[in-house]
Predict the structure.
Amino acid sequence: MIADIQRRTVYRYQTAVLANAVSQRLRAMDVLVKADEGRLLILCPELSAEETAWLCKQLEKTIATDMGLDVRCAASLFPGEGLTFDGLQDTAVGKLGQTIDIRHQTKDLKKSSSPVIS
């Protein structure tokens, strides 16, 4: 029971640090949402396909370098890939393939070189 509480606490901490790192790299109009276990969702209005691809690559690279976490990003574009929020989310999730769950990554975030921990 104590081990389970510790595991959940570490997971929540990792998720909060990851969300903070991601949010610092977004524009003021972008919205970051915790979609479900192990998944964050970013709404980026008015980004082109090229800008979205660049943002995904930058987030993956920065999080891997700063935090030592392996994350994957996928995007879907309105209206070409979906007309509803759920449709867009399903399309993006489908592009991800197998989701990487940060609960199984044990990097010590306190030793991270990332300036995002406040």
User: Anything to note?
Assistant: Residues 86 and 92 are 10 Å apart (CA to CA). The chain has one domain: 2-102. The beta strands are 31-36, 39-43.
